[in-house]
Design goal:
heterodimer; A: about 60 residues; mainly alpha; 3 helices; about 60% helix; B: about 475 residues; alpha/beta; 7-stranded mixed beta sheet; about 25% strand
Chain lengths: ~60, ~475
């Protein structure tokens, strides 16, 4: 195991200083029209990722 | 005519068996051996664990599906592997013991031409004293029955909260070497949601206790996301979600033991702590099935075939390496076992070459190292890939054919979704490509393609999770067009 910088285990302060979503962001996350669009985008991105994950045939 | 035996009917084994049946003529026999009579869509156990779904919505009996598809089904447990055969025949064989009620305990030696080991994990609750629902003090969501018990325990806590009693709910990893942090993360947010729905969130403290050194690690060393014109990390993204939901966290922890209402843990800095709880869902570490292996003379050769963790060694590079020496090409591609060209191991059953997340030790030497996840999407892809290899070898007679699917060129998704409704749910979705970072190919973005690695929170991600639930259960039931649904 290589020496790595000691991780910051003070989870409370890390979480306290993390970005808090604004009310607008929270509304967007629940808004039907916005989320319909995001759903489509998510599906396209998922399909693209799935398509990349397909293997090849090899002969040893 | 060939016989292919598949050990295990989880995501990888079931996928492999269905594809083999589809690709091979009826003259060949596909046999599935599984100790369980039911199939379980494990990702949705999370919803069962908070009472949003019933067990019957995430399970179904395997026998009718296999009967319809022409797959032989043996409800049994594999107890020994004889890849070189025995004194009677040099054909490989596997010893099985029936777990079906009518033939319970009956032993049988199954001969095979090809074997797929998809035995999944052994839930290693005994690794941590007091861990787990069977004789321990914590609940689990690893099986559908465990999830039902977890839901009942959660309801009891909600009843106390309604009566005005403060309660602490701890969700996370029950050992320093656990994997599946994504599942614990998802369960955390389902618990948070259930408490809000019940109107008692303000009296409850929710704590995520993890072996990850930082939030957002997920056993894959974290991810780099692109968000609103900035590169950000899965750590910041996850911490933000924790802040929004008011969830506390304990990082870099190895659970030493669980007592009634109290968990003892050691953190990476060597400090030891106690945490009292009223409810604890702690996942166990995994071991491999550890199937004993014998040569033709009956000598035990398990150590040559399996690694010490009970996982089967395959075409990976198992040379011990430090994390800075890890390479994408260390990861297996064909899943062919070491020494036996007709034996494969897929899903959790194969031995990974090393972790993905950096392993660490406490000053006293306790290893705290998230194990690499290899469930869900990658398991299915491995199952299909090996099925393609075997089917083509049988059809062509060319034993050199091998289809490949490395976790270093395969993506994965984790959708942590809460709420049963179409309008009221929400989810945090993450995808990554590749699962195993390739720092040579994607040097500036954490070893992954940033276009395919993203985190998204919202109702749309929740719909995606619902879609995946129904789609994968449809696929597993092998209904019309099932094979067109990607793994």
């Amino acid at each position: 195991m290589i020496p790595t910088p000691p991780p910051n285990l003070d989870a409370d302060s890390l979480i306290r200083s993390a970005p808090l979503p604004t009310k607008r962001t929270l509304r967007r996350r629940a808004s039907l029209p916005t989320q319909l669009l995001r759903f489509l985008v998510l599906n396209i991105r998922m399909l693209r990722m799935v398509g990349k994950g397909h293997g090849d045939t090899h002969h040893h | 005519m060939s016989r292919i035996v598949v050990l295990g009917a989880g995501i990888s084994g079931h996928t492999a068996a269905l594809h083999l049946r589809r690709m091979l003529g009826k003259g060949h026999t596909v046999t599935v051996v599984s100790p369980n009579s039911d199939w379980n869509w494990i990702p949705s156990n999370i919803w069962v664990g908070v009472g949003q779904m019933e067990k019957k919505q995430v399970t179904f009996p395997l026998a009718p599906i296999y009967k319809r598809k022409g797959i032989e089904f043996k409800q049994a447990r594999a107890v020994a592997l004889r890849p070189e055969g025995d004194s009677e025949s040099n054909q490989g064989a596997v010893d099985i013991v029936s777990t079906a009620p009518e033939t319970d305990g009956l032993e049988e030696r199954l001969r095979y031409d090809y074997l797929i080991n998809a035995t999944g994990p052994k839930l290693n609750f005994p690794a941590t004293p007091g861990l787990g629902p069977d004789g321990g003090h914590s609940v689990s969501v690893c099986t559908a029955n465990h999830a039902v018990e977890a839901s009942e325990a959660l309801n009891a806590v909600i009843a106390k909260l309604r009566a005005g009693e403060r309660q602490r709910l701890v969700v996370g990893m029950g050992h320093g070497t656990c994997t599946c942090e994504g599942a614990a993360f998802e369960y955390t947010f389902n618990v948070d949601h259930a408490l809000r729905e019940a109107g008692v969130r303000d009296l409850a403290e929710v704590v995520y206790l993890t072996n990850e050194a930082a939030l957002g690690d997920f056993g894959v060393g974290g991810m780099v996301f692109s968000q609103q014109g900035f590169e950000t990390s899965s750590q910041t993204w996850t911490e933000s979600l924790f802040r929004e939901r008011g969830v506390r966290a304990v990082l870099g922890a190895h659970v030493q033991r669980v007592e009634e209402g109290r968990v003892h843990y050691e953190q990476l800095d060597g400090s030891e702590h106690d945490l009292d709880f009223d409810f604890a869902m702690l996942l166990p570490p995994f071991r491999g099935a550890g199937l004993p292996v014998y040569d033709a003379a009956g000598e035990d050769i398990t150590d040559q075939v399996n690694n010490p963790g009970g996982f089967m060694k395959v075409d990976a590079n198992y040379t011990p390496k430090t994390p800075d020496e890890w390479r994408a090409e260390d990861w297996p591609k064909t899943y062919q076992s070491v020494g036996y060209a007709n034996v494969f191991a897929v899903g959790i059953a194969f031995a990974p070459p090393h972790p993905i997340s950096i392993p660490r030790k406490t000053p006293s030497g306790t290893v705290i190292a998230p194990s690499p996840p290899r469930t869900g999407m990658p398991s299915g892809v491995m199952g299909r890939t090996v099925a393609m290899t075997i089917a083509e070898r049988i059809k062509s007679g060319d034993e050199s054919i091998a289809h490949t699917a490395s976790m270093a060129s395969m993506g994965a998704a984790c959708v942590a979704s809460t709420g049963p409704g179409l309008r009221t749910g929400t989810a945090a979705a993450m995808t990554m490509y590749p699962i195993v970072p390739d720092y040579e190919k994607y040097a500036d973005t954490g070893g992954r393609n940033i276009k395919d690695t993203f985190g998204e929170i919202g109702l749309g991600a929740h719909w995606l999770k619902l879609l995946l639930h129904y789609l994968f259960i449809y696929k597993a039931k092998a209904k019309l067009g099932w094979h067109l649904i990607p793994e």
